[in-house]
Each structure stands twice: as C-alpha cells, then as structure tokens.
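Review form for a predicted model. The reviewer records the input and the model, then writes brief findings.
Reviewer: anonymous (R2)
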Amino acid sequence: MIKKEILIGFIVGLIANTIGTLAYIVLFSDFGILETYQAAVVQGHVGSLLALGAILNLFAFFGFLKIRRDYRARGVMLATLLTAILILYYKVF
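Model under review:
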C-alpha cells in the first residue's frame, strides 16, 4: 500500500514537471517546443528548462501534504530529486 502511494506521487511529480516545462516553453518562447528544446541543447540550457518546469512540483508536494497524503508527497519529492540529478548531469556533462 505504501509503495503504491509513493509510486502515484512519483508519477504525479514527473507529470507536473513535464507540464511545467512545456508550459514555460509555450508561454515564454517565440519558437515551438521542438525548436526551443534543440536551441536549449545547443546553448546548454536544458537543465534550466527542467528546473523551471520543476516549480509545479511545489504545488503537487504541498497539495499532497495539505490533504494528508504524506507518502504521495514523498513520491513527488523523489521525482524532484530525479530531476535534480538530471539537471546536475546536464550541467556537468
């Protein structure tokens, strides 16, 4: 039961991060999603895009805490940690 709750939170965190990244690209970029991603890869800004997308994880995390779904909040935290590791990878390599 606990693993299922953590998995649900992890999936919600990944979806929130993806939606946040796409929303940032759509709202603040003059180019399409694919062109913006390609430009970010060339310029080395993929980590920054992921970090800005992870802002939505805050809402998911605190939302789960507010409704007392602590294990789902842990899953969101794990998704955020995975995002941080990906950002570190993009920044170092």
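Findings: The first helix runs from residue 2 to 28.
Further findings: The mean pLDDT is 95.
Recommendation: see findings above.
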